[in-house]
Amino acid sequence: xxxxxxxxxxxxxxxxxxxxxxxxxxKILLYLGCMDLDLAIHEEEPPIAIATVTQAEKATYERWExxxxxxxMLIKSHINKSISGLIPEHDNVRDYLQAIEEQFATSDxxxxxxxMQKLSSMRYNGTSGVREHIMEMGDISSQLGALxxxxxxxxxxxxxxxxxPSQFVQFKISYNAQKEKWSMNELLTTCVQEExxxx
Length: 199
What we know:
With 199 residues, this protein is mostly helical. 66% of the residues lie in helices and 0% in strands. It contains eleven helices and no strands.
């Protein structure tokens, strides 16, 4: 039963390629944590002196060594071959993960610029639904917040309204005529109602 769970869960981990590092790392760490194999990722290798080692120290070291070995095997089996050759070899899983991270390090400034450009140029095209459109804009705003680029809720509300197509012209006029500022939740609810009315 456990081997079936292992195979099923492991198959859900994507293969690391050039554009999925964040998702890959989250899934790897989740899997290792669920399988109680992440000890070597969170703790340094315990010292072991063969002559004076106690049973408890030996058990601790063996548990760490098993975690390290299995973690390395799992990680290496989920890396695209074209990428694995670029990553320096390490016997310690923490060092190996650090080497992978260095290969995928991106400048926060570049990422923030890309996200700001995407957010400011987004337009609702009616493909998915206004709820998904607004939630995607909110998600990008949250990502920018994590990069210390704060966007006020009021500014984000205006960006969303600007992104709406001409079918929402009456909605825009109504919003602009009001004195109150809307929260994102109020905007989301009202936009969904308006989309329903337009349909």
